[in-house]
Amino acid sequence: xxxxxxxxxxxxxxxxDFLELMSAxxxxxxxxxxxxxxxxxxxIAEIGASRPDLIIVDLLLGGASGWExxxxxxxxxxxxxxxxxxxxxxxxxxxxxxxxxxxxxxxxVLPKPFGIDQITGLVGDLIGQPASR
Length: 133
What we know:
This protein has a single domain (8-125), classed as 3-Layer(aba) Sandwich (Rossmann fold), CATH 3.40.50.2300. The relative contact order is 0.20. The longest helix is centred in the N-terminal third of the chain and has 14 residues, at 16-29. A five-stranded parallel beta sheet has the order 2-1-3-6-7, with helices on both faces. A two-stranded antiparallel ribbon has the order 4-5. It has helices spanning 16-29, 44-49, 66-75, 91-96, 98-104, 116-127, and strands at residues 8-13, 33-38, 54-58, 60-61, 64-65, 84-88, 107-111. The two termini are 12 Å apart. The chain is an alpha/beta fold. The protein is globular.
């Protein structure tokens, strides 16, 4: 019996501990296929090549900006319609850009810190639950 393809999530962050945590929660526990990217070193082409069903990006990525990744993703044919979750502890910046994010479309905000149920619930709402492994 062939196994169903697991939904793919690309996580972009400059914090290795956060990337490891997202892998543990979303891949090991929830059963999604997760690709991890260092936000300071990755390109939009690399993210696109991972063929994500969902992108999770931090607002602040060291020298880079999560806003740049959001903008570039919307301009990239393969990523234009993919839901994006913007995570950040910078709640003030998230509020300042709320209207801009709504205008971009299919952008969801998840302030840090967040609970496991919050991230898995939002991911499940956006791309569905993976088939049992």
